[in-house]
Write a structure and sequence with these properties.
The protein has 184 residues and is mostly helical. The chain has 7 helices and no strands.
Length: 184
């Protein structure tokens, strides 16, 4: 076997277009992993904060005490706590206006909690569209690099009188590296 068929040599000897495709795929892959790690850390923090608030909520403490604590520590609050705070704030605001209908009080609190829930969900789901786009587009970009590399290899082979497997293999292997990087 030819010793020049290692990945590093194939990347270094690839055409400019294939190198650009591999560089773009590598950068997007690194960005994706950064988003994935940030999501994992963020979701663990959300879960821990929500679990703590749920323990506090079901511990038997008065709802007004929980609300006051949530208002004081709003910058540290977990999503579930912020949803509770939004509902409680709306409930108290409507009660201050002397809305007598208990159904109207609860409906207002539910609306506020639904809006807060949607905001929290938007924050948690941020960057998922980036990951979905990268996951669906990267194989095609890698395939483009492969097609370009094979086309480049065959163009170089057209000038040769006798073509053997040893003359075809390096160009094809170079092209397939773009696919491998696209799937990584």
């Amino acid at each position: 076997m030819n010793q020049d068929l290692n990945i590093l040599q194939l990347v270094l000897h690839a055409s400019l277009v294939v190198k650009l495709v591999m560089a773009v795929l590598l950068l997007v892959s690194l960005a994706s992993w950064a988003v994935i790690v940030a999501k994992l850390v963020g979701l663990r923090k959300v879960r821990a904060g929500n679990d703590q608030f749920e323990r506090d909520f079901w511990s038997g403490r008065h709802v007004n005490d929980l609300y006051q604590q949530s208002e004081r520590n709003a910058h540290l609050a977990a999503p579930m706590e912020r949803i509770f705070t939004a509902g409680m704030r709306e409930f108290l605001k409507l009660r201050e206006r002397r809305v007598g209908d208990p159904g109207a009080l609860l409906d207002g609190a539910r609306r506020a909690m639904r809006a807060s829930f949607q905001r929290e969900l938007d924050v948690i789901e941020s960057n998922l569209s980036f990951l979905a786009t990268v996951g669906s587009v990267s194989p095609y970009v890698g395939l483009f690099g492969t097609v370009w590399g094979i086309m480049h290899a065959f163009t170089g082979l057209s000038n040769l009188q006798q073509v053997t497997l040893s003359t075809v293999a390096p160009g094809i292997a170079e092209a397939l590296v773009a696919t491998a990087i696209g799937l990584f």
